[in-house]
Specification:
By secondary structure, the chain is α+β, with helices and mostly antiparallel strands. The chain is built from seven helices and twelve strands. 14% of the residues are buried.
Length: 333
């Protein structure tokens, strides 16, 4: 029985000694980066604790005012650092403090709470003293002028709004002058760039190809067929000869060509007269042409456009002259 009691006492003593050893490894410290400041200056108060890694620590909560005369302006996060010993670690939290009253102020110890081996305990830091000094005034010099503030150089961020303002005003002035100039010339302020116009004969031949592929006269759409053929020729005549063919009758179109001699050859004139006259009979007199007449109308339309199309000027090709022999000029005296 005595042996069991001795063994139990021995193990209890070992646990107590182990806990006491770990507790001795926990150390809390308070420090200032400067113990002496002027009124209104700011200083850092550091609270740090060294402890084993398996110990959970809770930092003290500092109020916004210490001793009613020291103000806490800012709190940092808790930073953790590894120590030389693999079993220990350091945690630090900093506070920015200031005071607006001169004097010597004692910052009291703060208690850190920790949990070790299922037990909750606490350890205090040391206290520190903050000395706050007022500005010394030399009364022998009397009152002095207030110093003007120093001028700081302008930054790009400050200049950019002015640059953008000048650019905007310049753009507005340009737009106003441009619009006045365009208005005087009776032109719109903004215009879309015009696409290059295709030659009249290319447009007309493409339209005749479409009519030919649709084969309207073979589908008993004779009136529509002749209307589309003559409309194609009238548009071609307007673009090619600048005659208002879309607004004129057949007789007026033919009269325009007679009055402007030299525009059409005799064969082209006869083809045009035959096409337009036959089309008038179909559209207005309900004339039913023969299939050969339908085909001949399309063929004559192709001939008319190809015979009267405006030839584009060919570009002159400069050929490089190759010398077969090198000729030397010799002055004969």
């Amino acid at each position: 029985m005595k042996l069991r009691i001795n063994i139990l006492f021995f193990f209890t003593l070992l646990i107590f000694i182990s806990g006491l050893t770990n507790a001795q490894q926990i150390k809390a410290t308070a420090s200032l980066d400067s113990a002496n400041i002027l009124i209104g200056d700011q200083v850092k108060l550091f609270l740090e604790i060294d402890h084993p890694k398996n110990v959970k620590v809770e930092f003290p909560q500092l109020p916004d005012t210490i001793q009613s005369l020291i103000e806490v302006l800012e709190r940092s996060k808790v930073d953790t650092f590894e120590m030389d010993s693999e079993e220990l670690m350091k945690q630090i939290q900093s506070y920015t403090i200031t005071s607006f009253d001169s004097g010597s102020y004692r910052i009291p110890p703060y208690w850190f709470t920790f949990e070790m081996d299922g037990l909750v305990d606490s350890v205090p830091s040391n206290g520190v003293t903050l000395n706050v000094y007022s500005m010394t005034v030399d009364t022998t010099k009397g009152p002095t002028d207030i110093k003007m503030p120093y001028s700081a150089p302008l930054s790009l961020k400050e200049v950019i709004p002015y640059i953008l303002g000048v650019i905007l005003i310049g753009a507005i002035i340009f737009l106003v002058l441009y619009s006045i100039k365009r208005k005087k010339k009776n032109k719109p302020i903004f215009t879309r760039p015009q696409k290059p116009q295709e030659p009249a004969h290319i447009v007309a031949l493409r339209e005749l190809d479409r009519i030919k592929n649709e084969k309207l006269w073979q589908k008993d759409k004779t009136k529509q067929y002749y209307s589309e053929v003559t409309d194609t020729l009238r548009e071609y005549i307007e673009d090619r000869f600048e005659i208002s063919a879309m607004e004129q009758t057949t007789d007026e179109i033919l009269t325009s060509f007679r009055n402007r001699k030299g525009l059409l050859g005799e064969k082209s004139f006869n083809n045009l007269s035959q096409i337009l006259s036959l089309a008038d009979l179909v559209k207005f007199a309900k004339y039913k042409p023969l299939p050969d007449d339908d085909n001949l109308t399309l063929v004559n339309s192709y001939f008319f456009i190809n015979d009267t199309k405006k030839e584009e000027p060919k570009k002159e090709v400069k050929e490089d002259k190759e010398d077969d022999e090198n000729v030397e000029e010799v002055d004969i005296k």
